Amino acid sequence: MNDTKTSPLIGVLAIQGDFERHAAALEEAGANASLVRNAEDLRPGGELLDGLIMPGGESTTMLKFLNRNGFLEELKAFIASKPVFGTCAGAILLAKVVSHPAQPSLGALDIAVERNAYGDQRDSAILTLDTALPGGPLEAVFIRAPRIVTAGPSVEVLAQRDGFPVLVRQGHILAATFHPELSADRRVHRYFVAQICTDAH
User: Fold this and answer.
1) Which end of the chain is more exposed for a tag (fewer CB within 10 A), N or C?
2) What is the pTM of this model?
3) Is 189 a catalytic residue?
């Protein structure tokens, strides 16, 4: 556990996906992690978390879960004011437009996403990609990954695969179509933690 006085407390949506690995990655990146399973978990001790990670999984199943007990509305309010990082299905939920097939989303990030664009589980891949993050090429683990087909003018592209964005940032929102928690490289999580620490000052 990191120093709670100086380290941000970041939630990890614990519905599906490898949320435990995200929590471990956050700890390695210098933050404190807290699992989020309901709206109340967004306010541990009565105060909002400093940020939130929305992991991979199956986006339609995650939406059904979030629609229970007012969780989705609380999440929308949280995303409007706090840093959020969506990976794979989490990126789909954050997107403004979702296709293949279409589905509702939180519409918080100005990207259009095509679900399962790189094929099924057999088409998963581990690639090394150029990135705007310091430290050289980045290992990226793709599992039934979505594709960001368009990104708005205010969206910063931090890494690409075959000309398509795979790591993007718009203001306080970060999204990846790959799984940084499955790599030993913690730069993406460190980038998100640094973003939160910067926003706090």
Assistant:
1) C
2) 0.93
3) no
181 is catalytic: yes
Per-residue pLDDT tens digits for 144-200? 889 999 999 999 999 999 999 999 999 999 999 999 999 999 999 999 999 999 876
Q: Which of 22, 114, 172, 181 is catalytic?
A: 181
Decide if 201 is catalytic. Answer: no
Instruction: Provide the 10 A C-beta neighbour count for residue 80.
Output: 11
The active-site residue out of 22, 172, 179, 189 is 179
Separation of alpha carbons 116 and 106, rounded Å:
19
